Amino acid sequence: MATERWDGLIVGPTLVTLAGDAGYGLIEDGALGWRDGVLVHAGARSALPAAPEALAAEVVQASGCITPGLIDCHTHLVFAGNRAAEFELRLQGASYEEIARAGGGILSSVRAVRAADEDALLAESLPRARALVADGATTLEIKSGYGLDFDSERRMLRVARRVGEALGIAVRTTYLAAHALPPEYAGRADDYIDAAIGWLPALHAEGLVDAVDAFAERIAFDPAQTRRVFEAARALGLPVKLHADQLSDGGGAALAAEFGGLSADHVEHTSEAGVRAMAAAGTVAVLLPGAFHVLRETRLPPLDAFRAAGVPMAVATDCNPGTSPLLSLRQAMQLACTHFRLTPEEALRGATVHAARALGLDDRGRLRPGLRADFVHWDVRAPAELGYWLGGRLARGVYAGGRRIGPPPAT
Ligand code: NIG
Ligand code: FE
Fold this sequence. Notes:
The chain has 2 domains: 2-68 and 366-406, Urease, subunit C, domain 1; 70-358, Alpha-Beta Barrel (TIM Barrel).
């Protein structure tokens, strides 16, 4: 019998606990209780220690399914403007790389971010974050990387933190100054990497950086430059992750693994050796089917090799204005099932359990007493529907730290 009343209790739905290493961990006719932002009961209604009304201040009877809150572990959500015009160019035949080499691509977003002040950047970014939350996200990773100078990178990271505060969600920030070479450093990539490394300690001291990322690619930074960024992160005790092997195999996954990276992301071109290195290091493969879909890629990540080697696969939106203007993690799960043939269960684990690990978080991602009360109440009969429906409104209630944060009522 609880000595203190719980803050909330939902009885009746199917709990999708994701307990254990496989399976949904379903509990039919479940009961989910929480207090002070933490789950205190995630089990069968019949296992409740007393009558519901005696346990909690607020008791709700419901049907449907409850999953852990979704965790979007790779986004570039903070940006200004958009790149719909480039999308049109690509549909007429121009490639992503050609547009980038001509000064468009990431650099066009850099121009827009540099011209936007902090409030404007927040105002543009908040609706995107609200959309992700409305479809079940309770934790977001947000990268810098469209500023590429000290003040603009700092502004992006500050806006990322403000998004979390405004919406009552957890935001993990990632420093991605090594995303592209800004025009003022043209022909001087090593000097730019020196500068980007130089900005990091101050941003870290301000509490703005939870992890460090880079874009290792022939149109971005080479392995030696990426290594220098990682060494700077390591010197500050910051974990690393990497945009690895997206357009070509540059050995990025193995490099991320060498530094004990939390994750290697995209990984369409990762080799067998890269997969083995990731498995040995415990590095998560973050699959980004939105970018694959929008760029109309055909090369699949080495999914069977990841499975065989036991590399955990996360799924994220990669929400960004260039390659993945995707505002729903549930939709990313659907794309992972359709394009990568993940099972709906793998996709759900990818957006919860494995996404938490890709962010180095061990207090969320499943329904279990002691974990954060981050969960989503869905209008579905079975969890496979989360990887099945395209669009629509399935989330009935999104809770972060036990507080209902979305979705807004239908109008
Ligand atoms: O994850 N690959 C590099 N970064 C982003 C795209 C950024 C952009 O085009 O604006 C990605 O796909
Ligand atoms: Fe990305």
